[in-house]
Amino acid sequence: MTTRTAPETIEAFQQRVNEVSDELPRRLKQCADYFSVNSEKIPIATVAEVAAAAGVQPSALIRFCQILGFSGYSELQKLFRTSYVPVLPDYDTRLQNLRDRGAASPSAILAEFVDAGRMSLENLANTVEPRVLDQSVATLVEAGTIHIIGLRRAFPVAAYLSYAFEKMHIPAVLHDRSGKLGNLHAVRDGDALIAVTFSPYSEETQSFALHCASRNIPVIVITDTASGPLHRDGFLPIQVSEVDFGAFRALSATLSLAIALAVAVGTARSAS
After folding, report:
1. For the CA atoms of 210, 219, 199, 30, what is the dihedral angle to 10 degrees?
2. Helix-strand-coil percent breakdown of the chain, rounded to 5?
3. For the whole prediction, is pTM greater than 0.90?
4. Can you give the pLDDT at residue 82?
5. What is the third-level CATH fold of 130-271?
6. Which among 59, 214, 240, 263 is placed 20 to 30 Å from 113, CA to CA?
7. What is the pLDDT of residues 90-129, one digit of tens each?
8. For residue 239, what are the β-bridge partners?
9. Hey, CA dihedral for 63, 69, 72, 78, is it positive or negative?
10. Domain residue spans of the chain
11. pLDDT in tens, 224-259
């Protein structure tokens, strides 16, 4: 890999990750995925903590930083600290305290998910690129029919988008793979696709999106990491991460993004 200068903004950092993603070995790709989903933790986490959370050795994490153009983790951390506003006590501490106390009552579990959802929403407000969001809305406003696919955990998001567009009298088709039918023939020139997929990424969703792209159908992707399989040239990726509790991830931020996207498209269409 060639020597690079360090990115100077978070957006440039994400773009750099996209550029090198295909070149990264498995361990370094784990680092990229962790940074994409847990950017809010980088300003206050040590290199050992991040490496352990990403499932790699500290040396692999430092190598990842150097490939992106940084001298090491400390220099990369300084970049993330430029947009970090500390709030005490932070949500990580609150969640950890609940776990340490062994709280397992329904109300305690609800409190865990409320805190996780709040953090996810704060991340969403800080990480979504307005330029990509604007482009996505403009693309969907011009589409003849909006096709939507999202399977497994992503299905509630896809179903909501289909419901919202239907209520707004916007032509939309939900591809839910019922009977294992792809319905690719329903996609016509002038249409657009919204593909929703999270790690581990649905092969059916990937295949559908790539098929549409091969026909020059615009593809908007709602996904969780900057190094995912649908972060590629020609796609409009909207990145959203969900803070998890006990390895379960709610959809607080993702559904808020879907609502905002649907309302923005509906507003623009009704004004045209």
Report:
1. 80
2. 60, 10, 30
3. no
4. 66
5. Rossmann fold (3.40.50)
6. 263
7. 556 666 665 666 666 778 778 778 888 888 888 888 778 8
8. 223
9. negative
10. 10-81, 91-127, 130-271
11. 866 566 766 778 888 888 877 666 678 888 999 999
